[in-house]
């Protein structure tokens, strides 16, 4: 993990491999953003014109590298675009700063130390830059090169892959190490981003190494480290408990399913929220096999469970005054002679029977069992997170997740929270007329309904398993959970950790009593 510190040192005197400054789009060309005054002075006040001569415009996502003048201790200056400059009485938005810091951190891959001189007037700015830098510096290199680990010691040999290591250290200029608000902002950013990057690591881990049993072991170790109680229900106990959804999805694999319960409690908590994550460690589609071209990234189908683990551990690390339980519904969906067939009927943990019309609609089956189990504890709210439907990607694209709920006010709150922390989302309806499409002549309900509005159909299916009187929301993160294109902002290629920030802020708002 990249180290991060605050410093009151001047940009001109700090020794580092590079200094990062902000540049925005002004009415007459690029303008240097606040925080870079000392750097601009070293260029005799002509940094903006130098950048313009190099083709810089200040657009978001832009990074311009130039040699530093003799007045600076660092040899390189990197100017990152902030987009359109705000009005005089306005500040740069948190997400703008977060993305710019991410671009800078990615650009500085392989460097040992960089000083960030971006606009940081308030603690919120410090938090945004810190989050962006630490998320942008992420790299998944565990499987690169010829590195081998000793079975006894776990010691790693030299990695000769040639892959650049993440930026080693970030120093935030303008931050005050003794300021309580600034210090708290950095500490929160470090805890939060470490857990987001834990989720990214899980998502990126190949499915031959990450399957229900090993995922449960990782969760157990994380819980032990951070004071979170962990209970693992193995395959034998799932059979005894009647968890037909988890068992039905997992019965085609040699790796049996697991249900993991995480528990963080606070002595002064007045509210309890339950987070439920879809944890399909690999999704082949089962007997309803996915077509060619759709299997290669299906290691990411446990992104919801990874997000829930990260959020619960974050709540514990931050000491939030709220009780948080996490439920990881873990299974591997594989085709074999023992796999569930289209037409089979499963008896769920709730007692409802489900006719399986398509074994590739498996996420809703494991979530249904976990939601029912979570409901038994009567939490104040349940939020499930899942890479659930391709239909949601068709509806909202690759960067936005959908939010459904049985309570309009709660759905609005979750949407506002997501937007606040910089995660693109959109509220979606649950039209009751779509329920008819899941009628089954054999069972209580089918796991498939109408093709049109498929993401909403899946939400309606899950709603059937929420305990009576419990507020519930469903986040379909199928689009933003795994990024296949080139990195942008603080978003890497591969697992993103989507929804973790939303879940953590939801826990913070609940702890503060802001959600009723």
Any idea what the shape is? elongated
In spatial order, strands of the major sheet run 8-9-11-10-14-18-15-16
Tell me roughly what share of residues is in helical segments: 25-40%
Structural class: alpha/beta
Biggest pleated-sheet summary: 8 strands, mixed
User: Poorly predicted ranges (pLDDT <50, ≥5 residues)?
Assistant: 150-159
Quaternary status: single chain
Rounded to the nearest angstrom, the distance between the terminal CA atoms is 37 Å
Mean pLDDT: 95
Number of beta strands: 20
Strand content: 15-25%
Radius of gyration: 24 Å
Number of helices: 14
Write a compact overview of the structure shown.
With 516 residues, this protein is α/β, with parallel strands linked by helices. The protein is built from 14 helices and 20 strands. Helix content is 32%, strand content 21%.
Task: Give a structural overview.
This protein is α/β, with parallel strands linked by helices and 516 residues long. It is 32% helix and 21% strand. The protein has 14 helices and 20 strands. The strands form four sheets. The chain has an eight-stranded mixed β-sheet with strand order 8-9-11-10-14-18-15-16, sandwiched between helices. Strands 1, 2, 3, 4, 5, 6 and 7 form a seven-stranded mixed β-sheet that branches. A three-stranded mixed β-sheet has the order 12-13-17. Helix 8 runs antiparallel to helix 10 (363-375). It starts with a strand and ends in a 5-residue tail after the last helix.
């Amino acid at each position: 993990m990249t180290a991060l510190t605050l410093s009151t040192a001047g940009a001109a005197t700090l020794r580092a491999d590079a200094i990062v400054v902000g540049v925005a789009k002004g009415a007459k060309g690029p303008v240097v953003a606040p925080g870079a005054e000392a750097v601009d002075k070293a260029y005799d006040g002509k940094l903006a014109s130098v950048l313009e001569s190099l083709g810089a415009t200040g657009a978001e996502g832009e990074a311009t590298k130039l040699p530093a003048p003799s007045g600076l201790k660092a040899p390189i200056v990197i100017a990152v675009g902030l987009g359109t400059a705000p009005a005089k009485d306005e500040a740069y938005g948190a997400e703008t700063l977060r993305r710019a810091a991410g671009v800078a951190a990615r650009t500085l891959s392989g460097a040992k130390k960089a000083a960030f001189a971006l606009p940081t007037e308030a603690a919120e700015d410090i938090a945004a830059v810190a989050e962006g830098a630490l998320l942008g510096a992420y790299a998944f290199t565990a499987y690169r090169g010829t590195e081998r680990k000793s079975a006894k010691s776990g010691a790693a040999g030299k990695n000769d892959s040639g892959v650049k290591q993440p930026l080693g250290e970030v120093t935030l200029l303008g931050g005050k190490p003794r300021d309580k608000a600034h210090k708290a902002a950095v500490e929160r950013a470090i805890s939060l981003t470490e857990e987001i990057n834990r989720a990214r690591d899980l998502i990126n881990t190949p499915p031959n190494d990450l399957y229900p049993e090993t995922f449960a072991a990782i969760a157990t170790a994380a819980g032990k480290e951070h004071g979170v109680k962990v209970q693992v229900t193995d395959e034998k106990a799932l059979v005894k408990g009647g968890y037909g959804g988890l068992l039905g999805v997992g019965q085609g694999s040699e790796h049996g399913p697991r249900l993991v319960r995480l528990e963080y409690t606070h002595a002064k908590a007045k509210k309890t929220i339950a987070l439920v994550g879809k944890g399909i460690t690999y999704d082949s589609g089962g007997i309803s096999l996915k077509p060619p071209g759709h299997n290669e990234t299906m290691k990411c189908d446990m992104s919801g469970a990874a997000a829930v683990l990260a959020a619960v551990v974050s709540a514990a690390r931050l000491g939030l005054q709220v009780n948080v339980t996490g439920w990881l519904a873990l299974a591997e969906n594989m085709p074999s002679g023992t796999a569930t067939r289209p037409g089979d009927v499963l008896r769920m943990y709730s007692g409802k029977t489900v006719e399986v019309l398509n074994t590739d609609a498996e996420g809703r089956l494991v979530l249904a069992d976990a939601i029912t189990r979570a409901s038994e504890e009567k939490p104040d709210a349940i939020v499930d997170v899942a890479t659930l439907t391709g239909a949601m990607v068709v509806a909202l694209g690759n960067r936005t997740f959908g939010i459904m709920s049985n309570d309009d006010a709660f759905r609005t709150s979750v949407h506002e929270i997501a937007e606040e922390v910089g995660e693109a989302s959109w509220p979606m309806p649950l039209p009751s007329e779509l329920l008819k499409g899941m009628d089954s002549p054999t069972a209580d309900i089918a796991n498939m309904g109408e093709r049109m509005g498929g993401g909403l159909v899946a939400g309606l299916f899950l709603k059937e398993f929420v305990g009576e009187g419990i507020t519930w929301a469903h986040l379909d993160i199928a689009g933003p959970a795994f990024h296949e294109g080139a990195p942008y902002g603080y978003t890497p290629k591969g697992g993103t950790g989507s929804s973790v920030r939303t879940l953590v802020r939801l826990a913070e708002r609940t702890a503060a009593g802001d959600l009723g």
